[in-house]
């Protein structure tokens, strides 16, 4: 069943964040957890820990600390939409997030999109306002079974380059 949903939690960033990673919209599991990449099969946290040479964080506090320690920021391209469960293909009636709160209050220099839908929404709704280019990276979602963790790491290493 499709329903109109408003993004339920705020962006994660601080004044020292330099690299913004955008998802599309939180999955059902992420909405339940009230935090980014809450599905246990999503590889985002294992991947980020691998790229940062740290242990995989388990709690929201550990995850937040990992992101901020490495001057990263997390948010999503979509503020609200009509969606069925967690299905990217069902997303419609999109209202984009206003990223000015991050750009105006951090040192963000680079934007990376976690998957095709995030990038599509960014380019359609956000790029025309910001003119700030974004790089599309392969999704860490379990639905992207074509990519192993190692293959994701090859593509995602760019987020750690200065």
Summed up, what is this model?
The chain is an alpha/beta fold and 162 residues long. It has helices at residues 28-33, 44-52, 60-69, 100-103, 116-130, 149-156; strands spanning 2-6, 19-23, 72-76, 78-84, 92-96, 110-114, 134-137.
What does this structure look like?
The structure is a single chain. The chain has six helices and seven strands. The protein starts with a strand and ends in a 6-residue tail after the last helix. Helices cover 32% and strands 22% of the residues. A four-stranded parallel beta sheet has the order 3-2-6-7. The protein has a three-stranded antiparallel beta sheet with strand order 1-4-5, covered by helices on one side. The model has no long low-confidence stretch (mean pLDDT 96). Helix 2 packs across helix 6. It has a single domain (2-155), classed as Uracil-DNA glycosylase-like domain (Uracil-DNA Glycosylase, subunit E, 3-Layer(aba) Sandwich), CATH 3.40.470. It has helices spanning 28-33, 44-52, 60-69, 100-103, 116-130, 149-156, and strands spanning 2-6, 19-23, 72-76, 78-84, 92-96, 110-114, 134-137. The protein has 162 residues and is an alpha/beta fold.
- Going by helix content, strand content and strand pairing, the class is alpha/beta
For the report, how would you describe the main beta sheet?
4 strands, parallel
CATH fold field value: Uracil-DNA Glycosylase, subunit E
Mean pLDDT across every amino acid position: 96
Shape: globular
CATH superfamily: Uracil-DNA glycosylase-like domain
CATH architecture, by name, is 3-Layer(aba) Sandwich
Number of domains: 1
**Estimated radius of gyration:** 15 Å
Helix content: 25-40%
**Which H/E pattern describes the elements?**
EEHHHEEEHEHEH
Poorly predicted regions? none
Strand content: 15-25%
The tally of beta strands, per DSSP, is 7
The span between the termini is 43 Å
User: Number of helical segments?
Assistant: 6
Strand order of the largest sheet: 3-2-6-7
Task: Quickly name the level 1 CATH class.
Answer: Alpha Beta
């Amino acid at each position: 069943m499709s329903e109109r949903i408003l993004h339920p939690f705020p962006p994660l960033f601080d004044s020292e964040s330099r690299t913004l990673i955008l998802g599309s919209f939180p999955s059902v599991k992420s909405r339940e957890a009230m935090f980014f990449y809450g599905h246990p099969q999503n590889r985002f946290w294992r991947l980020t820990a691998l790229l940062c040479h740290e242990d995989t964080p388990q709690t929201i506090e550990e995850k937040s600390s990992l992101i901020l320690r490495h001057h990263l920021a997390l948010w999503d391209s979509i503020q609200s939409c009509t969606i069925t469960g967690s299905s990217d293909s069902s997303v419609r009636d999109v209202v984009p997030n206003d990223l000015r709160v991050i750009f105006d209050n951090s040192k963000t220099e680079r934007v990376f999109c976690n998957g095709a839908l995030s990038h599509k929404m960014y380019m359609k709704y956000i790029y025309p306002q910001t003119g700030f280019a974004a790089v599309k990276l392969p999704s860490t979602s379990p639905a992207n079974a074509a990519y192993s963790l190692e293959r994701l790491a090859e593509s995602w290493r760019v987020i750690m380059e200065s």
